[in-house]
Amino acid sequence: MKTFTALSAILISHACAQNGVLDLTTLANYANQPVPAYITKDNTPNNNAITDEGATLGRVLFYDKRLSRNNTISCSSCHQQENAFGDAATVSTGVAGTTGRHSMRLVNSRFSTEVRFFWDERATSLENQTTRPIQDHVEMGFSGTNGDPAFAALVTKLSAIEEYRVLFYLMFGDAMITEARVQLALSQFVRSIQSFDSKYDVGRATTADNQNFTNLTAAENAGKTLFLNPPPQGGAGCAGCHRSPEFDIDPNSRNNGVTTGFSGTDLTNTRSPSLRDLVKTNGATNGGMMHDASFATLDQVIAHYNAIPADNTNLDPRLRRPGGLQNLNLTVTQQSNIAAFLRTLSGNSIYTDPKWSSPFNAQNELSLIVLPASSMTFQPLGNGTAEVTNRGVAALSYKLESSTDLTNWTQVTTLTADQTGFLRHAVPMNIQSKCFYRFSYTPPSL
Ligand code: HEC
Ligand code: HEC
User: What distance in Å separates the CA atoms of residue 206 and residue 302, rounded to the nearest whole number?
Assistant: First the structure.
């Protein structure tokens, strides 16, 4: 008998490449990421808790240009990891022109009481949001209008791709693709994108918001106080709408006085993403701020709130004063202190963690490892049998075959990898004719 390792199956769907290999036998941790104890808001619905399998499928979908009708645009074209999943451009380019609003950063989307998404909150949940860009004529082009193919054509397109049959099977236990399943997977991935390694978090881990943090400068602590306190107490009132420690938007917030849109006045914008990672830790921009990206710097943002420029029918009453509009009369130093505090809300890992990066290589190819050859073992058990084991992917089904000549293979059994991904089967040691064993994997059919 021999230990045979070389013939285990690796599913390589395209030309083999170093980048663009996703090892499903060791999934990244999305489900059990550490979340600080002081973070309590969570909009995850009961039926869609993050799993490593689901977020892995979501990651592939998020970066796959085949989700656009002409294979040129993915979610990541407009939501770029290097910009905290926002876009440095004022408007983003889709398959048929440019977007009507600025692309929002996707950071800590999970940690809010607000469950509605988009600047104007037209999506009733993150799940509902995620397939809208695909069905948008401008963005990804499966709109079913204006000569575009409908979403059903995308389902047919994805169903023909072997990797997706494996990945949907992994998440759902069968390979069927539906719009609801695409929504579940994409929103698991988006919810997994979290940023809690900021200077603010280091301080907040040991100290309540209303105390000075020992790791912040005097200016940053002063800015924190101004951000948190309401105007009657000498503060700037920011936390009334952007609530610490998540810095998520108050669901009751109305318009903040930024009314310019790309196609005329736009009073509908009442949502902001979390104020974390507005800029990078070095202060460099992640793109313009507000729905129209009209503010390039934090100073411009604070100057806006310092003196709200004009009233409108949807302006939040918190920004009005008896007989007029909010004018905080902040000094230049106070304004720069608030900016200094906002910069403490930026983390590092969101820009660099590979689990949120593209799984594809430069040629847009992706290979899935479902059975690494190097981990096959053959262990005599001492009772005339031996155990053949391999590292596989939990819940996937594999074939174990034997051969005497490496040419003709006979099926010994089929078996499903256990919860830890292991495949084990005992075979007799004394049958000299059966010298070679291999595991193999066939993607499920629909
Ligand atoms: C062509 C650019 C473009 C593409 C492609 C795109 N988006 Fe967006 N995304 C935007 C813009 C612009 C907005 C804000 C639109 C608005 O509010 O009207 C946005 C908003 C969002 C939001 C709302 C965030 C919040 O805090 O409310 C989420 C989530 C999101 N996109 C996820 C995705 C996903 C998932 C995909 C891929 C299926 C995707 N986007 C594809 C440009 C794009
Ligand atoms: C009455 C509620 C309200 C108050 C008070 C408020 N904001 Fe906002 N904020 C919003 C809304 C709504 C938006 C999104 C508006 C838009 O894009 O048109 C927003 C957007 C922002 C943005 C842009 C976010 C992004 O991702 O582009 C920043 C930065 C910001 N606010 C900072 C502040 C600061 C600093 C203060 C205090 C000086 C403050 N806000 C006070 C409601 C408020």
Answer: 28
CB atoms within 10 A of CB 29: 12
- The structure tokens listed for 191 are 């919810």
CA nearest neighbour of 395 among 412, 414, 418? 418
Q: Side chain identity at 443, as an amino acid letter?
A: P
Contacts of 392 (CB under 8 A, 6+ apart): 25, 370, 371, 398, 417, 421, 422, 423, 439, 441
Distance of CA 314 to the CA centre of its chain: 32
| CA of 188 relative to ligand 1 center, distance in Å | 15
Radius of gyration of the chain (CA): 26
Cα 33–Cα 364–Cα 444 angle in degrees, nearest 5:
70
| 423, 398 Cβ separation under 8 angstroms | yes
- pLDDT tens column, 36-72: 999 999 999 999 999 999 999 999 999 999 999 999 9
- Rounded Cα distance between 175 and 399, Å, is 18
Nearest-ligand number for the alpha carbon of 338: 2
Half-sphere exposure of 181 (CA within 13 A, CB side): 20
CA dist., res. 352 & res. 109, Å (int): 18
The reply to whether ligand 1 has any atom less than 6 angstroms from the CB of 293 is no
What are the angstrom distances between the C-alpha of 106 and each of 183, 247, 254, 350?
16, 13, 21, 10
Structure tokens at 255: 């318009």
Q: Which ligand is nearest to the CA of 90?
A: 1
Q: What is the pLDDT of residues 356-412, one digit of tens each?
A: 999 999 889 888 888 887 778 888 888 888 898 998 988 888 999 988 888 888 999
Please report, for residues 44, 271, 370, 374, 401, the alpha-carbon distance to residue 8 in angstroms, rounded to integers and kept in the order given.
39, 51, 10, 8, 10
Amino acid at 57: L
How many A from CA of 179 to the centre of ligand 2? Answer: 33
